[in-house]
Design goal:
The structure holds 2 protein chains of 2 kinds.
Chain A (H helix, E strand, L loop, with lengths): L1 E6 L5 H16 L4 E6 L3 H4 L5 E4 L13 E4 L6 H12 L1
Parallel strand pairs in A: 1-2, 1-3, 3-4
Chain B lengths: L8 E5 L4 H14 L7 H12 L9 E5 L10 E11 L9 E8 L7 H12 L3 H6 L4 H9 L3
Parallel strand pairs in B: 1-3, 2-4
Antiparallel strand pairs in B: 3-4
The chains are: A alpha/beta, B alpha/beta.
């Protein structure tokens, strides 16, 4: 299982998203590799990803993907991330 | 934790709009010797290019740009606004706390980011930070997660 967190620079916001996604996955007892990447490299970074986590601004920039795209509102809300990941993966 | 010098903490400042708020974070990073003056405008450019995605939680913007030669040391700044400003985010406006983040490389700050996440996993943290009356209040909030 591969999950990619996407933001503009690949530092900062996607890092927060990665950390909290890992916490959500631990709660769900799901093993997955979570990486952070910038939107410019999404085609490569997410080529074999099952899930892309990102904010509303980036959805249209993602282009074609086979991954489930999860739009996150509050990056610090592990409950929100847990519910959305459970919905996508469960 | 990423370094947060006293000189990088600005409380109750006035910003006309989101650009002003992000540039305050740039001034704070520069005042603390973490970045050169060019870094603030580079953080503004990220929002101009990609939108208000840096508003990652209700009331909080994590301003940052890519690593570059204008980053002298990795670290962060905290700016609280006397009056919140709108960034144009669909869910999380208006913003009263701006965290400015500057890193030398994309990977070496992962531990610091995890600690930052710890602080704000507490749903009351943003409001408490917005209302912080002193540098000591800010420090207590960040220490509380350690």
């Amino acid at each position: 299982m591969k999950i990619v967190a996407i933001c503009g620079a690949g530092v900062g916001t996607s890092g927060i998203l990665k950390v909290n996604a890992e916490r959500a996955l631990a709660r769900l007892d799901i093993e997955a590799e979570v990486t952070a990447a910038d939107v410019g490299s999404v085609a490569i970074a997410a080529a074999d990803a099952q899930v892309i986590l990102t904010s509303p601004e980036f959805v249209e920039r993602l282009g074609k993907t086979n991954a489930d795209v999860i739009v996150v509102q509050n990056y610090f809300d592990v409950d929100e991330l847990t519910a959305k990941l459970e919905g996508a993966l469960g | 934790m990423l370094t947060l010098p006293d000189s990088a903490i600005l409380l109750g400042r006035d910003a006309r709009d989101w650009r002003g708020a992000v540039l305050l974070a740039g001034e704070a990073l520069e005042a603390a010797g973490l970045t050169e003056p060019e870094y603030g405008p580079r953080m503004v450019s990220m929002v101009e290019e990609f939108g208000a995605y840096i508003v990652i939680a209700p009331g909080l913007a994590l301003a940052h740009a890519r690593p570059g030669p204008d980053v002298l040391h990795s670290g962060m700044a905290v700016v609280t606004l006397a009056e919140p400003v709108v960034f144009g985010h669909p869910y999380n406006d208006p913003v009263s706390v701006v965290i400015g983040l500057a890193v030398i490389t994309a990977d070496e700050h992962v531990g610091g980011i995890a600690e930052l996440a710890n602080v704000f996993n507490d749903p009351t943290a943003i409001e408490r930070l917005a209302n912080a009356g002193s540098i000591a209040d800010v420090r207590a909030l960040f220490r509380g997660s350690e």
